Amino acid sequence: MKLLIVDDEQVEREAMEVILQKAYPNLIIKQAKNGNMAVEIAHEFQPDLVLMDIKMPGMNGLEAVEQISTDYPHIKFIMVTAYDMYDYLRSAIKLGVKDYLLKPSNTKEILHIVGKVMGEIEQEKKRKEVNKIQSEAFQKALAIVETDVVTQLLFDHVHEIRFNMLVEMLGVRSTNEMFVICVIMPKGCERSYFAVKEKMRQIGSGWVGALSGNQLPIIVFREPEKSYRSQAIFLAREILSIAPAGQFEEWFVGIGDVTDSLEELRQSYHNSLIATLDITLPSKYRFFSDVPNLEEYCEEDMVTYRENEFSDLIRLGKWEQIHLNVRRLIQCYERKGADLLQSQQRLLESLWIISRVMNEMGVEAVTPLYSFKAQNYRQLYMEAELLIDKMKQTYEEYSHLYEADTIKQIKQYIMEHSHENISLETLAQKVGLSPIYISKMFKEKLGINYIDFLTDCRIEKAKKLLCDPIKSIKEISFEVGYHEPNYFSKVFKKVCQMSPKEYRRTFLEKRA
């Protein structure tokens, strides 16, 4: 701790330093002989505590306190004066002075007053350190929450009330309109991933999802003061500026369409994936709306393609339906006389979606590419079938993973750790699968998402604890994993149709 003694009498300064240095050997002490010098030394020395004489030539003690505390509000002051005058003390109190010493003071009194204020300073430092640690932990938790929310929005579902609560908690400048951008980056770019997250945090208009393979989805909230295209181009360029010089050609940003509903956000994500089909474009980013369109040829079939969204069929293992959809598209393009090259590109977009969904599930599928430019629709059909069969084979080889055992393991972990902040990332690390796949598998196998299951575990534990009349509602809320008792009560009432107090009263009445 650092202390500054300010007094125009050298004898007083020296005596005070000797007393304090003897009592507190680790105290770093400096002296100033007037108010002006005190201001200068305070700027360089940054003391924790100043013993300030009031009556000094030039700038008096009160003026020096006012000037120093304006620039450095954390510095504490003890006034030292030979004048026990009410006006001086009243002025000192207004300036936030912690205490005062009257000249002459005995050693015991000096050590008592200085020791008391130093103790307060020490406690304040500890509180600040604890707050800093808590703030850093909270920021880390928010980063995990952000990744989880993106995963659920794009691959599962989030209730609108919960979504609004998360928007408020994550502090994003949100509007009703959103769109998704997909960043393609080389594998092994973990540092770049964190750089993208930091860039988006600085910009403050979106949420970054989990890096899956070489794909990074980002949900972007529309900024009303900018046009959609100008905002998207700005973000794309900012993200591409992170790419290392030697890897720039492997980076690309696909930009999905704007939507105003959570239900359509997933479509914007798929649009962004399709926009990344050709990463050799010189601009290194592309809007989905700029992708060549064949819908006018097969509008009815494209609607079917959209509704099925291939991804759902893959997660359910319906490969025959995937073959059928691809066959129908090729037949439709051929029947309508669509350009063969455009048809091949459009089909490749569909195959890319299949490949990417498999990667999200944890299945390492090779990105499908046509080995040659098709000369006719028969070649196009045969090549598409071969590519789908290869992906199907990879999928089936992966299916030896026992999903039932995995689900059992996840359920057990959630039940044992329900009082902790469990994220999709945590669950994924426990079973060695991707967060996205965990989310989908949990929902499909149990008919409930992991957040709802976690809530059920906490509420069941809370019910047991409520049977003990000694425990308070606040204690129980903390014990089951809720840091806000009011929120715990709301969740409990929503699940049980009664408040925790009502549940406890009902139980006790039945027992009586």
TrEMBL record:
UniProt key word Phosphoprotein: yes
Limits of the HTH araC/xylS-type domain: 408-506
Keyword line: DNA-binding, Phosphoprotein, Transcription, Transcription regulation
InterPro entries: CheY-like_superfamily, Homeodomain-like_sf, HTH_AraC, HTH_AraC-typ_CS, Sig_transdc_resp-reg_receiver, Tscrpt_reg_AraC-type_HTH
Modified positions (4-aspartylphosphate) in chain numbering: 53
Entries under Pfam families matching the protein: HTH_18, Response_reg
All residue ranges annotated as the Response regulatory domain in the record: 2-118
UniProt-listed PANTHER family: ARAC-FAMILY TRANSCRIPTIONAL REGULATOR (PTHR43280), HTH-TYPE TRANSCRIPTIONAL REGULATOR EXSA (PTHR43280:SF2)
Record's protein name: Two-component system response regulator YesN
Species annotation: Anoxybacillus andreesenii
